Amino acid sequence: MPLPTLADLHTWNTSITALHQVAYLIGRLQASAIEPRPNALHLALLPQSYGLSSVDFPDGGQLQLHFGVGEMRYHAPNGFLSIAKLAEHTQASLFAMFSDLMKLTEVRHADKLQGTDALILDAATAEGYAQAQYAAFTGIARFRARLRGTLSPIVIFPEHFDISTLIFGEGNRDLDESGAHLNIGFAPFTLGQYERPYLYAYAHPYPADYAYPAPPAPAFWNRDGWTGIVTHYDDIARQPDPAQFIETTCMAMVELLLPLVK
Prior knowledge:
Order of helices and strands: HEEEEEHHEEEEEEHH
Number of strands: 11
Radius of gyration: 19 Å
Number of domains: 2
Oligomer: single chain
Strand content: 15-25%
């Protein structure tokens, strides 16, 4: 069935800003609880049907962000559950609460976790984005299941708040973003460029003489600030089976881009 429109820009902007601030916080808390991982995966969060979660920590704990009900939760190693309503907190107060619960003595970049703006969340909008994000995750996961080669996990990077997975080129022996790769993902916005969500794919590097073949509509090339193929959320949301549409669109984008990293 079609996805929510997420068309009210006021409720969208306030809600996605609040969720983004909390996701960024969870990423930093996670990075303080686990060892560094290649390709910054120690910062990467896991898409869930309710929103997102951290990985499981070495002590057995886990952080969760439930979009629709507006809650950040900590499942402690001893089984105790701590819940904070976002509407009652700021990013700074959540940081103080959960770093204390996790008994973290040091959090890198703690100065970036001191937001004092109210976390304003519209429940229907937040739940709508949970549905949209999970449809994107489902479609991308089904597309990846058809591929061969070396792939990264499908994760949420809190810096941009986007779902992302990499397809490494055959010659990329270090399996990192400095070598040849494709990136397929779903982003909620890009400041100054896209106000609302979009599906994307790009290659690295592009040859100087690349001809940029036309992708199947409604996808199009973005050449402003970064180079990749984009499909607007509105074109995804109206589909009767959005996850299937995302799967098919990802296959079409990768068929165009994959020769660049072989």
